[in-house]
Specification:
Elements (H helix, E strand, L loop, with lengths): L40 E7 L5 E2 L4 E7 L2 E9 L6 E2 L10 E5 L11 E5 L4 E12 L2 E6 L14 E4 L5 E4 L3 E2 L10 E8 L1 E4 L8 H6 L2 E4 L2 E4 L1
Parallel strand pairs: 1-4
Antiparallel strand pairs: 1-13, 2-12, 3-4, 3-11, 5-10, 6-9, 7-8, 7-10, 8-9, 11-13, 14-16, 15-16
């Protein structure tokens, strides 16, 4: 009797259990440092849980809790740090909705920035509740403006006083409130980085990190 899928040599009908290898391991290779990594000034930091997989080169900033920068905890700066609103946040109200999985990035007491392509402002989270996969976030005070999904309305952590560049890939977990996050090392000075490897860089980051652009590199002094 022939051997193969749906065939057997066991002498009766049935399929022989087998293992089919259909995928492959994806190895991410990325070049961040033009200068030697061991010459850079690095610090150990903890990434706030809930942000999932983050790539080496991601610009990070501090978390603000109860109005104070918590420098042991960092979050992504830029697009990777934003959660898009599911519905408009109407001026004069105090609640917004986002995907429930993305709520793990936030906690009561966090100082957050809410806005869209038209305007934005800072608020403090007063309450978070999740029902049927949708998270409702309530802030102290009310929305100063009308933030709309048509203008890609978002919520993100307020930008901290310091910026860093993460120098390794991490999995900060996601989907569950209280997820632990991840440990990482970050660049703070004395490094030359490839521009195309850095995520979230802008003029504010350059000024804060005392950096300049030279060709295809960022020179962090």
């Amino acid at each position: 009797m022939p051997i193969g899928i749906g065939k057997t040599t066991a002498g009766r009908a049935g399929n022989v259990p087998q293992v089919n290898i259909t995928g492959y391991h994806r190895e991410v290779q990325k070049r961040l440092f033009y200068s030697r990594r061991e010459q850079a000034l690095l610090l150990e930091k903890t990434v706030r849980g809930g942000f999932g997989n983050l790539e080496m080169g991601q610009v990070m900033t501090e978390v603000y809790v109860d109005g104070t920068a918590v420098r042991d905890f960092i979050v992504p700066y830029g697009a990777n740090g934003k959660a898009l609103l599911l519905a408009n946040a109407t001026s004069g109200q105090a609640t917004l909705t986002i995907d429930g999985d993305e709520a793990a990035c936030f906690a009561v007491g966090d100082l957050v920035n809410v806005g869209d392509s038209n305007s934005n402002a800072n608020y403090e989270i007063d309450d978070i509740s999740i029902t049927d996969g949708v998270a409702t976030i309530t802030v102290t005070g009310t929305w100063a403006e009308h933030y709309t999904t048509a203008r890609d309305a978002w919520i993100q952590h307020r930008r901290g006083g310091k910026f860093y560049v993460m120098d390794q890939h991490v999995d900060a977990g996601g989907g569950d409130a209280g997820v632990e996050g991840a440990l990482t090392s970050v660049v703070i000075a004395n490094a030359v980085l490839y521009q195309d490897a850095v995520i979230g860089w802008d003029s504010d980051v350059a000024t804060n990190m005392n950096a300049l652009t030279d060709g295809v590199y960022y020179v962090i002094r």
